[in-house]
Amino acid sequence: MTTLSTLNKFKKAGTKFTCLTCYDSMFARMMEKAEIDTILIGDSLGMVVQGHDSTLPVTVNDMAYHTANIARSNKHALILADLPFMSYVTLPEAVANSRTLMQAGAHVIKIEGGSELCELVTTLAQAGTPTCVHLGLTPQSVNVFGGYKIQGRGDEAADKLLADAKAVVAAGAALLVLECVPAVLAKAVTDAVAVPVIGIGAGADTDGQVLVMHDMLGMAHGRVPRFIHDFLTDDRNSAHSIEGAFALYQQSVREGSFPTEQHQFS
Ligand code: KIV
Ligand code: NA
């Protein structure tokens, strides 16, 4: 059973850990067998499962449904669940929606943004709900960014991201996710905060790695981002199985052979 204490120990010891997105029971069971450390019920399910072209249409009920399916089926991983678009704008709404996801089986609630989340982070921590703050490319803000673009490039943007990370950790955030930021910035954030940092397209120096499950099984729809590796058809997956792909991902992250420089942004 992986807990936040496990991840904090991993960070101190320099032991790299894994996270995969997951949306249903059978895959959750296979991830349990492969001993994937943490699972994210990502609002990416709006794109991967529901066929939308962004995460914006996903509802709290959608998230609760998938979270419950996974919580029943995996007793090994720490389970993170996303609060979806516009479900945490006001404090009362955010608290009620976090309760729904925690009661569905989540252990940690993930929210996108920066220092504006501090009050919510503190409120939830005091109420027994740890948060993971997702910074960098935050897909719920795609219409603000004008597309899915790398974030934190340039001194000003990098300084802001670092300040946001420190602020939410000071407010009580238990974990951070950094998506699509330069590897040097991800390393600076990881070194600057005491809590575990999980990266996607953020280089090899974060404490953990996360990938969307379908991506790492080679199921692409459209352009394949550079930070993806297909673990299913990788020669080292000698069983050529999905379970083998999960196990190879777990092994590769632990031993530091994934990600490499070709998967990161400068
Ligand atoms: O929803 C999701 O899959 C995510 C990860 C990409 C971090 O938020
Ligand atoms: Na998400």
From TrEMBL:
The active site is at residue 179. Its cofactor is Mg(2+). Mg(2+) binds at residues 43, 82, 112. Binds 1 Mg(2+) ion per subunit. 3-methyl-2-oxobutanoate binds at residues 43-44, 82, 110. It catalyses: (6R)-5,10-methylene-5,6,7,8-tetrahydrofolate + 3-methyl-2-oxobutanoate + H2O = 2-dehydropantoate + (6S)-5,6,7,8-tetrahydrofolate. Keywords: Cytoplasm, Magnesium, Metal-binding, Methyltransferase, Pantothenate biosynthesis, Transferase. NCBIfam families: panB, PRK00311.1. Catalyzes the reversible reaction in which hydroxymethyl group from 5,10-methylenetetrahydrofolate is transferred onto alpha-ketoisovalerate to form ketopantoate. Homodecamer; pentamer of dimers. This is 3-methyl-2-oxobutanoate hydroxymethyltransferase. The lineage of its organism: Bacteria, Pseudomonadati, Pseudomonadota, Gammaproteobacteria, Moraxellales.
